[in-house]
Amino acid sequence: MDYSSLFGVGVVVDILTGYVVDFEIMCKVCRFCSNAANQLGKESAEFNIWYEGHRNECDINHTGSSGSMELKASEVLWKPFHFVGVQIYYCFI
Ligand SMILES: [Zn+2]
Fold this sequence. Notes:
The chain has 3 helices and 2 strands. By secondary structure, the protein is α+β, with helices and mostly antiparallel strands. It has 2 domains: 58 residues, no CATH class; 31 residues, no CATH class. Strands 1-2 form a two-stranded antiparallel sheet. Helix 1 packs antiparallel against helix 2. It is elongated, with a radius of gyration of 17 Å. Bound molecules: zinc ion (ZN). The site of zinc ion has 7 residues, from helix 1. Zinc ion (ZN) binds next to helix 1.
């Protein structure tokens, strides 16, 4: 992964079948937020009011560095598989 990436994808692959069993897309940008910030001003009260209505559907789910996307994706993907009997192997590309 390029460490200036705005997007990242983490996947869980079953090593026996090769099938992708889960994935997480990490995103640092949202086109709706960008458009609203350009039109209303990022620091304006109007933008904050607009954002409160948009927050639940915003594409941004990562605000840290691009390099930390791997860790965040693994945290999200780890939880459902974190029970006895499942072995987890990580490989980030
Ligand atoms: Zn947004």
